[in-house]
Amino acid sequence: MEALEIFSKTFLIESAHFQRLSDTCLTITFENPPGFGNHNSAYVYLMLPWLSKYQFHAFTIFPGNLPNTSSICISKCGDWTKSLIEEITTPSHKPAFIAGPFLSPFSSPAMDSENVIAVASGIGVTPAVSLIKKYSSTSRRMSLIWICRDAALVEHFLPSLELSTGGWILVYYTGKRPLFLNEDLPSNVFLCNGRPNLERTISGVIYSIANDSCLPDEVFSKNSIVTKATPEITAKLILVKALSIYSIDQLFDYAVRVSTSFEEDLPEWSAASFDGVLKMINDLICVDCEHELLKTKAIKILDLVDNYGSSIVDKDTFEDFMQLMMSADVESTQSVASTQDCKTTSLDVSRVSLADINDTITNGMFGIKRVLKSGKYSGKKWNMLYCGGSEAVLAQLREYKHKYSIGLSVEKFDW
User: Fold this and answer.
1) Contact 167/142 with Cβ under 8 angstroms?
2) In 68-134, at which residue ranges do the beta strands (DSSP E only) sit?
3) Would you give the end-to-end CA distance of the chain in angstroms?
4) What would the pLDDT profile of 269-326 be if each residue is shown by its tens digit?
5) Which DSSP category does 284 fall into?
6) Residue 218 CA neighbour count, 13 Å, CB half
7) Closest Cα to residue 152, out of 113, 191, 122?
8) Residue 400 contacts by C-beta under 8 Å, 6 or more apart in sequence?
9) From the centroid of its chain, how far is CA 149?
10) For residue 211, what is the enclosing H or E element?
């Protein structure tokens, strides 16, 4: 990209909103400036003058949740992103320079294909998010297979992904922290444990769309995550999520800072008022939901730790408060809630005939080679798109391309 083109499309965003999702990623949201243009399936160069005046970095951009806004999601990868995430300890508004938007490598294959299967790993989901928002209401069939170990990314993006009834979203979560999802998932969205067998998963998506049927049972892992939990477990998950974003010190500092808007006679030493602590819970912990059980519990525990009836919380008392919030009347949550066996069809070798094996070799998984030969769902009308940093995933997709003669486009992070 020539420097002159970048300079001519550079905008000053005076007040971009920075929000941590976890200690490894954050989002930047801003109102589109005049002349910014259509930015579906595009990327921008970002410069933050308060971090480094001489560094522009490329990131995928996608429509924000509010009209005429855009968002960027940044994951920790290198010194610049590490410094940025360390700088944003609480939600903040700061200036930013945005150069772009420029069309991404995904734009052309997505527009030229009637059936698109986007495969993403980790933060590589952002180009797919942009495409889904652009094409979800059209006749083009979009499906997404996303492998991710970062709970914060799954929690942030999954509730906002909406596809037409003709596509599927399959998310394979490989992380350790329990997930908290505040909403039920649509019927064409599945959340599974572990890594997928990509040949089986992609073939299952193609089979389902070509036959206008449900996904074959074999597509799913043995355990599908159940996102519904009891109110008590949900309260614990909200706290676990918050503590993956902020440290105890950062939560306490925020409570102290906002307490000044409620109390004028606070002690000279660092302390927060009850109202300040509750404000912190509302702003930083329950930011994505209205969870009255958590707030009611907070009031009870604040009364419990207030030994002197002062309604003032110092650092030691705050630590006691948070420990009780995490432990009081809450069961252990090693998983999201419980796991439920999917309707999987296991392969019984003793019942598989030689003819079945030969058919799979000749016609591919679920017999889709017959579908891809010609007609409405021929191979030339499909395209796989991949974005992410996993060489193992990319190798499997290249093998699939060779075996089934389906196009593959790859978006890298080195624009």
Assistant:
1) yes
2) 69-75, 92-103, 115-121
3) 8
4) 688 888 889 888 888 877 655 567 778 888 889 988 887 788 888 888 999 888 888 7
5) I
6) 16
7) 122
8) 198, 199, 202, 384, 406, 408
9) 10
10) helix 198-211
Which has the closest alpha carbon to 70: 130, 160, 138, 154?
130
Alpha carbons 298 and 274: distance in angstroms, whole number: 10
CB 300 within 8 A of CB 292: no
| Cα distance between residue 150 and residue 174, in whole Å | 8
Question: Smallest Cα–Cα separation from 62: which of 6, 23, 106, 111?
Answer: 106
Q: List, in order, residues 6 or more apart from 324 with CB less than 8 Å away.
A: 301, 304, 305
- Categorize the per-residue pLDDT at 228 as very low, low, confident or very high, splitting at 50, 70 and 90: low
- In 3D, which of 148, 305, 122, 154 has the Cα closest to residue 237? 154
**Residue from 159, 111, 105, 161 nearest 133 by CA:** 161
d(CA 161, CA 148): 15
Q: Which helix (H) or strand (E) holds 155?
A: helix 151-157
Please name which of 103, 104, 100 lies closest in space to residue 11, comparing C-alpha atoms. Answer: 100
Full-model pTM: 0.78
Question: Residue 40 has which token pair?
Answer: 């579906």
- Residue 307, exposed/middle/buried by CB under 10 A (0-12, 13-18, 19+)? exposed
Give CB contacts under 8 A, 24+ apart, made by 228-231: 228/184, 228/337, 229/333, 229/336, 229/337, 230/337, 231/291, 231/293
Peptide bond before residue 101 is cis, with ω within 30 degrees of 0? yes
Give the phi and the psi of residue 280 in degrees, each rounded to 5.
Answer: -60, -45
- Structure-block tokens of residue 342: 């999917």
Residues 164-209 have pLDDT tens digits of 667 899 999 999 888 887 777 787 888 888 888 899 999 999 998 8
Distance CA(292)–CA(273), nearest Å, equals 20
Cβ pair 34, 103 in contact under 8 A: no
Residues composing the chain:
415
- What is residue 71's three-state secondary structure? strand
pLDDT of residue 414 exceeding 90: no
